[in-house]
C-alpha cells in the first residue's frame, strides 16, 4: 500500500469512527439499544484499526503521522478507555452510556479536525484546543441529558477550556518569522551589447479566440492562444517588449524553466511591478540554454494563464533538422487545445515533438505507431535515453518532455488523456492500458555530483486553516503556514542545497522552483537510478517524499511554489533568497 493510499484509508477510518461513536451516543440517548450497541462495536473496531494505519504512516515518515501520534492517538485511547468498560458492563438502561459514547465521538472528531484544519507540524496549542473542545462538548451533552457532572469536574473542565482557548488560538495567530519580500528590484535589465538580438513584442489584451471550434473569451498575447512561439538559437539575445493593452489585473512574463537573471524573472511584487494597462516592460537576456520552455504571466497567474496568457519558448543549438514541432497542451474555457493537426513527413525524417503541459494538472501522453526516445525533460538533455514503445509519459503542470523518433512509413499519433492531438494517418490509439515511464529509472546513470550539502530544507505540503489574513481561509500550506507567512529558504551564493518535499495532502502538487534546475536525488527513500534528471517542474503525489538538490548559482529572490496555480494563489508559495 502506498503512503498516499494509507493517508486516504486513515482518513476514511477516522471519519467512520467519528460517525459510529456519535451515532452510538445518539442511539443510546434515544434508548435504541441494539442500534447503539452495533454502532459502538463498529466504532471500537474502527478506532483500533487506526492503530495500524497510524503506525504504518509513522513508519513512512514522521511528517505523515505527527499530529496523529501526538493528538489523535491519546484522544482515541481516552475514547476507548472511557466508553469501552461502560459498554462491557452491559447496563440495564442503555441511556447510562450515552455520555461516555458521546465523549468518545467528540474525542475522535476533535482529533480529526486537528488533522484536517491544522495538519503538520503538530503543536501544543492545537492539542490543547482539541482537548478543550472535547471537554466543553461533553459537559454540555451531560447537562442536556440530565447527567449532571460534579461541581469539581465542571470547574476543572472550565479551566482546561479557557487555558486551551488562550494558548491554542494564540499560537495559531502569532505571526511567523517570515522576513518581508522586497517589492521592487532596484537594477534595470542589464544591457547586452553587440550580440545577435531576437526582438519580439507581446501585447496582452482581452480577445475572443477559437477553442476546439467554439469562440470563447480569452486573455491573449497578440490576439492568439497560445501566444506567438518565440524561438532563438543558443547565444542570441532575446529582447521581448511586453505591453498591456487592457488586462486590469496586470501582466508580467515569467520564463518558465529558463534560468534568467533575477530581474528578468517576471514575478510581480518580487522581481518587478506588474505591468498595468497602457504600460510596458522590456525583458532582455541571453539565450544560453537550449531546450523547450514556455512563458506565461505571473500576475494573477491562476486566472491569467488559464485565460490564455502563455506561449512557447524554444532555444535550439543550431538550424532545425527534420520535423521539430511544439505541442503546448492547454485547457481553455473547459475546451482542449491544440486542435488535432497533421504534418506530412517522409519516412526516415527525424522528428522531435516538444510536449509542454501549460495546465495546472498532470497530463498523460502516449505516442502510438512508433518507438521513441525521451531526449530531454524540462529543457535538459537526458543521458543515454533508450528506445521506448507502447509506454505513456506523465507530464506535470509546467513540465516539458521532448520525444524523438525517425518517422516510420506507417502513421503515428499522439494521444493526450485519450484525445488524439497529432496524427499522420489511421493508427490504433488504444493506449489507455500502457505502462507509464518512471523518469527516475530511465537513461544512463552518472556519478552523483555532490556528497555534502551546505544547506538542507524540508517542505511539508498540506492543507490547513489560515487565520493570519483578514478573512480565515482553507489554505494550501507549506510547513503549516501559507503565503506570505512561510519563512524563506536563505542560501549563500555557491551553496549546494538539498531540499526534501513531503506531500501529506490528498492531492498532487507540481513543484516549481524559479531560476534553478534541481537534480533529483531520491523519491520515497529510493535513489534515482537513471540519467541525471534536472527538473524545474515535478509532481509530488500524495504520500511522496522527494529529495532534490541544486547549486545556488543565480542570486536573487526566487519564487518556489506549487504550479497548480490555484494552490499557489491559495498559499502554496514561498521564496528562495540569497543572503
Ligand atoms: Cu499544489
Description:
By secondary structure, this protein is of the alpha+beta class. The chain has helices at residues 3-29, 33-60, 62-88, 98-118, 124-144, 151-173, 301-307, 565-569; strands at residues 197-211, 214-221, 230-233, 237-244, 254-256, 280-286, 291-296, 310-316, 323-332, 335-337, 350-357, 363-368, 373-377, 380-381, 392-395, 400-406, 413-416, 419-423, 455-466, 473-478, 489-491, 496-503, 509-513, 518-523, 526-527, 534-535, 537-540, 545-551, 557-562, 573-578. The strands form 6 sheets. Strands 19, 20, 22, 24, 25, 26 and 28 form a 7-stranded mixed β-sheet that branches. A hairpin with a 2-residue loop joins β13 (373-377) and β14. The model is unreliable at 170-179 and 181-190 (pLDDT under 50). The site of copper (II) ion has 6 residues, from loops.
Keywords:
579 residues, alpha+beta, six-stranded mixed sheet, elongated, binds copper (II) ion
Give a brief description.
With 579 residues, the protein is an alpha+beta fold. It is built from 8 helices and 30 strands.
